[in-house]
Design brief:
By secondary structure, the protein is an alpha/beta fold. It has 12 helices and 11 strands. Strands 7-6-5-4-3-11-10-9-8 form a 9-stranded parallel sheet. It has a two-stranded antiparallel ribbon with strand order 1-2. β1 and β2 form a beta hairpin.
Amino acid sequence: MQENLFKNFNKVSDQEWKEKIIADLKGKSIEDLNWNLKEDLTIKSYYTESDAKNIDFPILRTNNPAWQIGEKIEVKNFKEANKTALDSLMKGITAPSFHFYTLPNQEEFFALFENIGIEFIATHFSFDTDNIDYLAFFELWKNLLAARNLDSASAYFDFDAKLLNDEKQLENMTKIVSNNENFALSTIHIDCKRFQTNEANIDIELKKSIAKAKEYFDFFISKGISAEKIAQQTYFTVRIGLSYLLETAKLRALKILWTKLLASYNVEASLPFIKVEFAPNAYGESKDDNLINGTSLCMSAILGGANYIVVAPVDDSDKAKRLARNVQLVLKHESGFDEVSDPMAGSYYVEVLTQLFISQSR
C-alpha cells in the first residue's frame, strides 16, 4: 500500500505564493523576473495550479521513455568502424549511428556489420554527402537482412530528399516508402536541426518542422501511399540547447503537434520517434563545464520524451567518449530516468510552456 506523503501539508493558495515571492524580492517588482522571449511571447517566473488547470496531455503518458543510447561512428575505414561499433556495443551503446561519406559496395557493407547482431539493436544511418543513392543504400540493407535470414531489424535512414530538392531521390524515396511493409524500418526523416536557432524562435522551429512533415504527407499521398503508412515511417531529428525547461517543453510540444497533424489526415494518434542531438553552441571552452552541460542536455531530452540520444563527447579522446557514453548509462540504469512516462506531467511550469509553444506554432 502506497502512502501519500503530502497529505499532512496544507494547500498553499496562489495568493500566498505571490505574497511570499514579493516578500523575498524585498521591494523589487515580480514582473522583473519575467522572461521576454520576444515581443509576443513572455514567460512568467513561476506558474501555479490555476495557470495549468485546463492543460493536460494524457497521450504523452502512453509510453515509457526507454530511449535508445546512441553514439556516432564515422565510416571512413569499414573495418575500423566495425571495431569501434563492437567496442561501443560491448560498453552499453544500444543504437550506433553510422555516418557515411561515400556509398559502400556490398562487401564493404557486410564488413561493417561483421559480428554485429543487427536483430538485437537499433541501427541508425546518416550521410555527409548528397550523392548517396537512397535506393542503392536501401538495397544494401535488404541484402544484409537476406544474408542473415532476417525478416526485419530496427533501422533508421536519414533520407530527406525534400531538403535536397532532388527529384531523383524523391522518386527513390517513393519506391522505398511504398514497398516498405516492415515498419521496423523508418525512412522518412524530418531534419529539424536546420530550423533550430535559439530559445526565442522555438515556435518557428516547431512550425517549420511540422510543415516539413506535412509536405511529406501531401507528397506521398499524391503518389497513392496511405497516410497511415507514411506516419509509421516518419521520425524527427531535433537539436536542443541549454535552456533546460524550454527544450523539454519543446520536445513535448512537438509530440502533441504531431498528433494534431495525424488527426488532420484521420490517422489514429500516436507519438513520433524523436532523435536528439546537441546544438553546436551547447559546449564552451571548459571540458569540465561541458561534461556538466552534456549531462544537463541529456536530462532535458529524456524529460521531454526523446527516443534516441547522442551525448557529444567533449573532445575526440577515448576518455571523453567513455564519459559521454556513461552519462546515458548512469541516467538510465542507475538513476532510473526511464521508469516514468512523461515525468514532467504535473509540472505547472513545463505544462504551461508546452501549451504556449503549441499555441504559438499553429
